[in-house]
Amino acid sequence: xxxxxxxxxxxxxxxxxxxxxxxxxxxxxxxxxxxxxxxxxxxxxxxxxxxxxxxxxxxxxxxxxxxxxxxxxxxxxxxxxxxxxxxxxxxxxxxxxxxxxxxxxxxxxxxxxxxxxxxxxxxxxxxxxxxxxxxxxxxxxxxxxxxxxxxxxxxxxxxxxxxxxxxxxxxxxxxxxxxxxxxxxxxxxxxxxxxxxxxxxxxxxxxxxxxxxxxxxxxxxxxxxxxxxxxxxxxxxxxxxxxx
Length: 244
What we know:
Layout: H1 12-19, E1 22-25, E2 35-39, E3 45-47, E4 57-60, E5 72-81, H2 86-92, H3 95-98, E6 104-109, E7 117-127, E8 130-143, E9 146-157, E10 170-174, H4 183-188, E11 217-218, H5 233-238
């Protein structure tokens, strides 16, 4: 499915800018933040923070010899301040993917994830003669310190006959008891109606394996010199102001 209608909505950064809200990148847990754990699959390695200083975490597989492409997962976390409509924010989540070149949507879901409001979108796009498979999950998590916007995107080269979905990391989000908002606070912030379903949505579920131990760190010398520039289409053409 090509959800052209959904692409007409603003992206999340565009919406927050129009609403006058602000996104502040969070790179580590702290007082009032959710507890965030991401478990990559076997063989994935963590990319050093100096390459992506505003990301909560980045993981990659070894580069492919024919293109220097690295299958990758990027976890972004941001603290939201200012006034915004949570329902509209969730509606805008899928726009970024739907604007990718030659986007073909496979799955879209607005189901909650582990009790948190969430949107997930899966599909393929074509760039520089390669076809890429992309999965992104967005979560809106509320604590006594405000709202946190969490985005996990996994991008892989599409391969005939290979299901890439098992490569998506397992994401576990918890709000500590002392940071959980009261039911009254949560209800007050949810006065807006729930986001409407997109055209022809289909439910999605990821087949998760048992979490694996933390992978070894990938140092800058383990990656192509221009990986985050010339040879990484996702970061060059789909990055927001949050990851620069």
